[in-house]
Amino acid sequence: MAERASSGTAVGVALLRAVHQVLDGEPKILDDPIALRLLDPAASDHIRKHAERFAGDGARALRSHVVLRSRFAEDRLAEAVARGVRQYVVLGAGLDTFAYRQPAWARELAIFEIDHPASQDEKRRRLAAGGIAIPGNVRHVAVDFELEPLPDALVRGGVDVTAPVFFTWLGVLMYLTEAAGDAVLRAVSALVPGTEIVFTFSQPEAPRPSAAPSLAQRAAEIGEPWLTRSDPRELEAKLRAFGFSRAGFLEPADAAALYFRGRTDGLPPPRRASIAWARV
């Protein structure tokens, strides 16, 4: 497999989830105590010491998006499990922590974390350093998608492609070319009915109320530029053309009602749709 450094944005995302645990109010949008353990042992003290760095409007909006996308995806996963899905694939798993804090309803799942070898090596190192055991229902599948198509990787990793699968694909699509992203969505759409994917996407640029660097600008600065942006209407049409029977988005009003009502910590609901779902 091609050599590549582990993802820098994965650590940034873990930090944002950790900040949510330390600085934001109750109830948490995402209850994720594992995020802190994947970081430096002094992460909690560092966050409190530099709380002002995480208090601006832009910083709050960014971590709001990060915790919201995971919470929504995990809520959809719970619904999928209730209807009988027993396989969960985390595409581009990064430092995702669901498998290491899984609730009782997830213990019948086979969980597959799929990521680049360098990123998986870094995650295993952090898990070991944090004293975090890998549950018996979790399998790490190292994949370089420049060399191996998703269907081949699923079969090699032990996924039963004759049964429904629930996928999450968070914070990845914007880093891929449109052709590469379409290939993943087509592969998922070709699986059996009941299969579902929740993923994030970036809409075309819009005026921003803050002069602070956007997430896209920050990613580009560390060598991980965004390559793809998608209009929701065009994206929904594409998903249906690929063969998904249903598709939709977490709309800002719905997100506000479900996850942000009554909050007093300044975490804002999203201004635009950026989380999509599609079911075969």
Task: Write up what this structure looks like.
By secondary structure, this protein is of the alpha/beta class. The protein has 10 helices and 7 strands. It has a 7-stranded mixed sheet, sandwiched between helices. β4, α7 (178-189) and β5 (196-200) form a beta-alpha-beta unit. Residues 1-5 have low confidence and may be disordered.
Offer a few descriptive terms.
single chain, 280 residues, seven-stranded mixed β-sheet, 7 strands, globular
Q: Based on Cα principal axes, name the global outline.
A: globular
Helix content: 40-55%
**Strand line-up across the major sheet:** 3-2-1-4-5-7-6
What fraction of residues sit in β-strands? Answer: 5-15%
The separation of the N and C termini measures: 31 Å
Order of helices and strands: HHHHEEHEHEHEHHEHE
Total strands: the figure is 7
Count of separate DSSP helical elements: 10
Give start-end ranges of low-pLDDT stretches: 1-5
Q: How would a textbook summarize the main sheet?
A: 7 strands, mixed
Kindly provide the radius of gyration, computed on alpha-carbon positions and rounded to a whole number of angstroms.
18 Å
Mean of the pLDDT scores? 91
Structural class: alpha/beta
